[in-house]
Amino acid sequence: QLQASGGGLVQAGGSLRLSCAASGRTFSSYSMGWFHQAPGKEREFIAAITWTGANTYYADSMKGRFTISRDNAKSTVYLQMNSLKPEDTAVYFCAADGRVYSSRSAYYYTVPSNFGSWGQGTQVTVSS
Fold it and tell me: What is the pLDDT of residue 40?
């Protein structure tokens, strides 16, 4: 089970840190990802981190602004979001890879159907 938190209302240029706490599974065995979904749009890849933490991947539009990290001791993955823009407004979801001990290509993590478990989502609203 994944529980995302940390969303809220922030002005453009501001920052938020999202957290996703995992329970009921061996968190450290799974690569993790963050996606977001705006109203009327498809779920979009933001970032992923492999189960070892050795590799991270980002959507081009988020590179340099967002940072994904994980703390296996706390079974938590984070998404630090800086320089937020109104177009970042969406519901943000964390997800766990559908395969254990998997380190795949960058493209693999951009596909939502490759993730087996999803959190409930947390709303991020960026005002202009």
Answer: 94
